[in-house]
Amino acid sequence: MLAMDGPSPLRSQIVIPARLHSTRLPRKLLLRETGKTLIQHTYEAACRAKRPRGVIVATDAVEIAAEVRSFGGEVRMTSRELASGTDRVAEVARNLADVDVLVNVQGDEPEISGAAIDLAVELLERDPEAVMSTLATPIRTREKLEDPACVKVVFDQHGRAMYFSRSVIPRPREWDDAWLERTPAVFYQHLGLYAYRREFLLELAAMPRAALEIVENLEQLRVLAAGYSILVGVIDEPSIGIDTPADYAAFVKRMATAR
Questions:
Q1: Which of 120, 142, 151, 191 has a 20 to 30 A CA-CA distance from 133?
Q2: What is the span of the domain harbouring residue 214?
Q3: Max CA distance (Å), the chain
Q4: Secondary structure letter of residue 180 according to DSSP
Q5: pLDDT tens track for 238-251
């Protein structure tokens, strides 16, 4: 772990919740048109982070577990009854009593940067009162801004999330394309990476779903509805998740170009 001046470094661990089935791109984590499976790309990307002590894949799928072991990764089997990735990370966290912070990296984020993961941990080191952190990146196109699949976040001057939504937030009373060009940005896309203090993660997994969470289908709203703060770190390199065949085709093309 990095030596640092100021706040004490936290003992952190990356956990990648990985399920086999997905609606828009079946069995996507085992796709291997690049020569490596998507889960291996994500695992190797997560390993580039410097603060966490390691990476664990949490899955209920025997095929994914076998794939992770085949490339030398660490894997933990979890219950098939779990409702979400957060629940899967929490199940692993129960057996990691010597860890302060769990970082939840989505299994379909093969281009996540190590610096982004490190920032999520650093945010919790800077603020001992905070229980959770996440990331956001500026939105610069109206198409993305108005896409319900692109989750938006607004936060206060201290970097604490005020709300997450699939709707446009903030909603300009009168539209002007200049809103998209402002610095600092007006609109931010929420990136689905989370860091939780272990004790809070175990508490979160036991909380009932909140009304706002059910309406928007956004799990992070459970945290805000319960009165907790989520720190938001801003990065300029949007993480590109793989959700559709077109997303995967574009990823394969980027990998081929990079060689």
A1: 142
A2: 12-258
A3: 55
A4: G
A5: 777 898 999 999 99
